[in-house]
Amino acid sequence: MIRIRKTSPAPEVLLTRGGRARADLCARYEEDPKGYDSGTKVFVFNAGIYGHPDVRNVLMEAQHAKCAFCESKFRHIAYGDVEHFRPKAGCRQVENGPLLRPGYYWLAYEWENLYLSCALCNQRFKGSLFPLRVAKSRAKNHRRRVRAEEPLLIDPGGDEPERLIGFRREVPYAVANNARARVTIDALGLQRTELMEQRRERLTLLWALRVVAESDKPEAVAAREKLATMVQGPSEYSSMAKAFLREPSRRRTVAARKKAGHLGHSGSGERKAQQGRSGRR
Ligand SMILES: [Zn+2]
To answer: How far, in Å, from the CA of 84 to the mean position of ligand 1?
Structure first.
């Protein structure tokens, strides 16, 4: 996950049609709060507003055509879902816990609350899950302030995900055992098999490029240039790539040790260090 900066203003459709729809939802709630709180009445949302092509296009650009959570590129066959960070129609504090109605209905058309997500992150994992550090602090309707909440899920638009989620090879982990990072990795399935395979493939490429980049071959310059693009936002799994390139390579580690007189040749010490790193995966 990387930081998403929505530098463009909210698309017009959210301000006009979205603004009117929000006012209508709030008025309906005021008419029968108990009905909506109990779930006997449910809101109907207009996907034509929050999922409008203008909204999708601006999000697609801000997110570099990648899922807001897992950083997988959207393929031509799957353009991604417009996902509500705070679920619009009911939420859960814990997986398989009770669905808390009515959800964050007043944020259904709110620019800050919208992201593009792949179907797996959105549907199979996050769904209506929205845990808070203190469950009681939840804003249950539009009269309450969401600013009083402390969400456990990392918000790619408001937090700095890369300070909280690190990578050991292709495996994401919670930096300093951060609780929000642990919950986020688990809730979004960031260690799911398919995703790990994709990242592993990317890692193989990074590895190969780094070997060439550190060599004396004529291709080294091109390899360094390619590596430089792979850590940029538009590249798939760039947060993992950055973490990978921050690690000292075997070649550089051995050279540094030789220089310091710790190693006569590329010997067992380095091999043990490599094995130790693998063992912590
Ligand atoms: Zn995803």
So the answer is: 13
